[in-house]
Inverse folding.
């Protein structure tokens, strides 16, 4: 009986810790690059298997190996000039400094090289992605939310109310 109670409590606390961790991590769709993949409300790193590079979303930095050392820069090195970030495959990794486990990820995601079947945030038509300031629909989304305060009832959209006002003024 004690073991069963202990097991139930352990599962409960594990779920509570997991929920708190998810709340703490939160969403960062608005900070992900528009070339990032859809389907992830939170991403710490992207791994680009085609070129063996990691991208830190919060820092907006690429991490790549240069003569045995990991270098972090805001741009890709010149040898990757012309690399198409929008059409390459990105693996989302939510851990600190995943490039420290590069051998593991190179092996684990080797089969993802050359894949081009991932939708970029830029091409997403789900409204949650419009919160990203670099999404092509962001400005329209902002205007819509300013206009109707996010509830679909902006000024001038409630014809019945406006007609009632006109009726009052005509009597």
């Amino acid at each position: 009986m004690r073991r069963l109670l202990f097991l139930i409590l352990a599962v409960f606390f594990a779920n509570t810790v997991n929920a708190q961790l998810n709340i703490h991590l939160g969403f960062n769709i608005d900070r992900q690059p528009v070339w990032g993949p859809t389907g992830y409300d939170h991403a710490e790193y992207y791994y680009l298997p085609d070129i063996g590079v990691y991208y830190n979303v919060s820092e907006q930095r690429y991490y790549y190996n240069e003569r045995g050392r990991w270098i972090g820069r805001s741009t890709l090195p010149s040898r990757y000039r012309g690399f198409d970030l929008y059409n390459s495959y990105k693996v989302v990794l939510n851990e600190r400094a995943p490039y420290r486990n590069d051998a593991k990820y190179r092996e684990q995601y080797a089969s993802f090289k050359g894949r081009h079947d991932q939708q970029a945030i830029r091409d997403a038509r789900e409204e949650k992605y419009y919160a990203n300031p670099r999404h092509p629909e962001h400005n329209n989304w902002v205007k819509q939310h300013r206009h109707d305060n996010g509830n679909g009832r902006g000024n001038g959209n409630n014809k019945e109310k406006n007609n009632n006002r006109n009726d009052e003024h005509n009597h």
Remarks:
- The chain has a mean pLDDT of 81.
- The longest helix spans residues 2-25.
- The two ends are 79 Å apart (CA to CA).
- Residues 29-124 form one domain.
